[in-house]
Amino acid sequence: MESRITPTSGAASLPLPAADDAASPRSSATADDRHHGTDARLAGLTPRRSAALASAATALDCVTPDAAGSRGIGAPASVPVVHRPDRPIFSIIRPIAFLSTRADIGGHRHATSLSGNAVVFSRSKATLGGSDVGMVGMLDGQEHLVKTGISRSLLGQAVQCCAKGQGAEADKRLGYIVGSAARLLEGTMDTQATQQWLTLAFHAFLDTEKGKKLTEKAQTDALDIDDVCEIHDSLVAADPRLRNPLGIPALFDVINVAAAQDLVNALQGRHLSQQNIPDSSLLTLPDNTFIASRLIHDAEPLDTFLTKAFLPPDVSLAQAKQAAVRVKSAAAGSGARPDELAADHALLARINDPVNLRSGKQALIDTLRHSGLDGLFSSLLARLTLGEASDLGPDNMLVIPGEDARHKVISIDVTGFRYDREKDTPANSREPLRHGWGDVIQHPARALQVLLDASVMSSRYAKGLDGVHAMVIEAIREVLAGQATPEVEMVTQWYAALDVDSATSSLRSLGDQLKNMSDAGWMPDAALVNQVLARNCSFLSNVVEKARK
User: Fold this and answer.
1) 44 φ, ψ to 5°?
2) In this predicted model, what pLDDT tens digit does every residue of 77-110 receive, in sequence order?
3) For residues 223-252, average pLDDT
4) Spatial distance between the Cα atoms of 1 and 369, rounded to a whole number of angstroms
5) Which helix (H) or strand (E) holds 442?
6) Cα–Cα distance between 136 and 263 in angstroms, integer?
7) Cα separation of 113 and 110, whole Å?
8) Among residues 390, 437, 375, 388, which one has the least CA distance to residue 414?
């Protein structure tokens, strides 16, 4: 079956303006919206946020009930932000007046009148999954996933580990944060000393009143955005040496996700309609910054789409994976209940039955032949060029019917500018060969072999269900083989046509645009921010250079 994505000489259809234009932040609201502030007494605002916004509070008193009602959630104050092909790439920064993290803010008249430059809590993100701490909030009258990055989320996970008496696991998560800082700063920090400072400060924090309160909360409830930000702030206040080692990964968790998603969105315009491209914003407050991405409610998770034919009708993919985890844990000596374990074994036996696997594979083949799956290979390659590893797979993608009735893949939650994955990594005694993107760009005919390899398309989406993953790969190979090379050629041509000078200028300008947050106690030094942005520019320039060869 042929893909509807074809390589063209004008693949990079996103016009990029001059550097001066690229440096200007995207307008976040209408003229009226920019005159609105917020009441410091609104529920859901922490004292530090309220103090930063006090100067804007009086403007709300000028809003009449009628005006407020006409600009509520049902009538957005501004046009919903979607990916616009006429704006500069990396125009991701969006200042907002406030962000509420509690459900009661949604009913406040003044809050709903500010949908153009405020985020109002809508619901928990628990149903969406993922390890990053966040929520679903209303922005522009539409639901957005709003979250902090993995580093702050790891701080929360470390507290949860300690609440369970798992101190070693907590320290491991702290080590991940230090490792992220070292990667971004490319070896210019003392990782051993930083690890010691962070470990000491963290465990000392747990003995404070704030720490005890959060540890107690973590025993029964998930920590939220305010909680993990409070941990971050407290650690830096206790040991200022941690400001840069914590601030750099915390800041670039959100910058790199928003920027990489923006880049991928420009590419996804080759096969997606505008309404199905997830917008990508870096929400900024005077003292904080978060990622926001519009939810696409009509889309189906790609992992669900690929695996549902293998599962019983009343069993979700998450439930099947949980059963596999419990069985594995029981084999390692965990105290699983016998009745629960027996049910898990029965479910896995049913799923892994060869007859079921063959039947599921044929059902998936029939679906792919009937409706296609455009954009799978271009999504895999784009994420590979941006350095993804474990996140590179169907659990970070969606699928939606296109206007031509063919299924389209939507890449979401891209974690960009991560690892240098250009070259193949040879096999060793512990790891098999790991493919890089350089070879497939130079030899597009190898696309199917490389992109479906376990070292590229992660099997994490079907963890514990190895037989299912194997059948999914076989079905994709059988039906979609003919579109792998054309999609790789399209991505290569798109990169080759990218105005890299304008793109990197826009990327570097993010440092200047974030200077209004310099007074935030956790913000890293501006020189280090610019250093990491320069690293990102080099990262992107290398991909473009290789694509042009």
Assistant:
1) 95, -5
2) 333 333 445 678 999 999 998 888 876 654 554 5
3) 97
4) 7
5) helix 437-442
6) 23
7) 5
8) 388
CA 546/CA 442 separation, integer angstroms: 8
Q: Which of 136, 135, 165 is nearest to 153 (CA)?
A: 135
Place of tokens 């917008």: 279
Is there a contact between 333 and 474 (Cβ–Cβ < 8 Å)? no
| 150 backbone φψ class: left, alpha, beta (φ>0; ψ -120 to 50) | alpha
pLDDT over 80 (residue 68): no
How far apart, in whole angstroms, are the C-alpha atoms of residue 213 and residue 159?
A: 11
Cα angle for residues 532, 254, 303 (degrees, 5° grid): 120
* Euclidean distance between CA atoms 530 and 184, whole angstroms: 11
pLDDT at 333 over 80: no
**Mutual angle of helices 191-206 and 167-184, in 10-degree steps:** 140
Rounded CA-CA distance 264/277 in Å is 10
Helix, strand, or coil here: 400? strand
Statement: the pTM of the whole predicted model exceeds 0.90: no
Question: What is the distance between the alpha carbons of residues 462 and 466, in angstroms, rounded to a whole number?
Answer: 7
For residues 352 and 363, give the distance between their C-alpha atoms in angstroms, rounded to a whole number.
Answer: 16
Domain ranges of the chain: 301-496
> In angstroms, what CA-CA distances link 170 with 159, 163, 217?
7, 10, 16
Q: What is the spatial order of strands in the sheet that 407-411 belongs to?
A: 300-301, 397-401, 407-411
E strands within 157-222? none
Q: What share of the chain is helix, strand, coil (3-state, %, to 5)?
A: 55, 10, 35
